[in-house]
Amino acid sequence: MSKLLKEFKEFALRGNVVDMAVGVIIGAAFGKVVTAVIDIFLNPIMEALPKMENGGTGFTGSLISFAAVLVEFLLTALVLFAIIKAMNKAKDLTKKPEKPAAPTTKKCPYCLSEIDIKATRCPHCTSEIK
Questions:
Q1: Which of 43, 47, 95, 107 is most buried per CB count within 10 Å?
Q2: 58 DSSP 8-state letter
Q3: Distance CA 118, CA 128 (A)
Q4: Where are the chain's structural domains?
Q5: Beta strand extents in the chain (DSSP E only)
Q6: For residue range 41-58, what is the model confidence (pLDDT) as tens digits?
Q7: Helix H segments across 59-118?
Q8: Running DSSP on this structure, what letter comes out for residue 121?
Q9: What's the whole-number average pLDDT of the chain?
């Protein structure tokens, strides 16, 4: 049983899982904010548009609902994109720059061919390398 708990702890505390959980929570909370903005500002504007009279089928109401959901989706996606992009940029700033790998070859000063870094004589022109 303790092995199972240890494995679960390693899984749950892994960076990707925690990041995903935070993203889901922030996304749900932001979805509520966008829904409130749509209900308070966008729906009254769209309901003020001219409605079909005499025999209308309610198509306008469905169109308003669809437009509200579409705008809600686009706003949520746009803001989450901006948040994730900012988080990735902040994460990149905290990374240490990688040291360039040590060179494994050098150029012969006489024939300019590439040779092993430890070579003392060029295999192409047989010149001695210092």
A1: 43
A2: S
A3: 12
A4: 2-94, 100-130
A5: 105-107, 114-116
A6: 877 777 776 665 554 455
A7: 59-94
A8: B
A9: 78
Closest of 13, 17, 24 to residue 83, by C-alpha = 24
Q: E strands, 41-109, where? A: 105-107
Asked if 83 and 31 count as a contact pair (C-beta separation under 8 A), the reply is no
Question: Using alpha carbons only, what angle is made at residue 111 by residues 107 and 112, rounded to the nearest 5 degrees?
Answer: 30
Tallying the residues shown for the chain, one arrives at 130
Per the listing, tokens 């308003």 go with: 64
Closest to 50 measured CA to CA, from 58, 60, 59: 60
What integer pLDDT is reported at residue 15 of this predicted model?
64
Residues 67, 46 contacting (CB under 8 angstroms): yes
Q: What is the DSSP letter of 100?
A: P
Radius of gyration of the chain (CA): 31
